[in-house]
Amino acid sequence: PDGPDGPDGPDGPDGPRGLNEKNMMPVDNNKPVFDDQTKPLDATRAVSSIPTASGEASGENWVYPSPQMFYNAMRRKNWQPAEEDMNAIVAIHNATNERVWSLIRMWEAEQGCAEPRLVRFRGRPKDYSPKARMLNLFANKRLPFDRHDWIVERCGRGKVRYVIDFYSGAVAPGQPAAMHLDVRPALDSPALLAERLIMQFKHMVSMLSTGRPGG
Prior knowledge:
Helices cover 30% and strands 19% of the residues. The protein has 215 residues and is an alpha+beta fold. The longest helix is centred in the middle third of the chain and has 25 residues, at 86-110. Residues 1-18 have low confidence and may be disordered.
C-alpha cells in the first residue's frame, strides 16, 4: 500500500514514480530522506511468516519494512512520528499482520487449503466496507480506523480477496495498544457468501456450546 499499511514485500518491478507495484512503496526507501531527521533509524527488516505467491519454489516470504522505511512512509503521509517510537510502532505493525495471517489461515484451512499464499495487498483506510458501515449505522459501532484488502492464492484453486477491518480496543494496563480485527473473505461470489454463512453458523454454535466466542 502507499505507506505503512501492510507488510512491505520483496523488491519487484518498478511501478509508477519508482514504486514497487506489489505494495506501492518506494523502491529505494531504506535510508533517511528528510533533512530534519536527527539520526539514522534501524534499517533491519524482519522476515514475516507470510509466503509470497511468487515464492513457491524458493519458499520466499514477505519482508516487513524497517523502522527507517516505516518512518519515511509516515512522513510522506504528512504524519510526524517520533523517531524514538519507531521500533515499537514497527513491532506492533508486524505482530498485527502476523495475527491477520493466522486468521486467514484458519479460514483457508476450513476450505481445505493448508498453505495459502499472499499475492498482494492494499490499504484502504477511508474506504469503509459495507459490513463496517452497517455495524456503524444499525449497531452504533465505531467505524474502523483502517482497512486492508489482501489477495490470497488458495492452493492453486484461484484467488480470494480478504477484507480486514481494524478497530481500536480498550488498552489493558501495561499494553501499548489494543485492537479488534474483523477478517473475512469479501462477498465476491455466491460461493464466498456461502463460506461466510457457514463460518458464522459455526461461530454461533461455538458460542452457545462453550459460552465464549469461537475461533
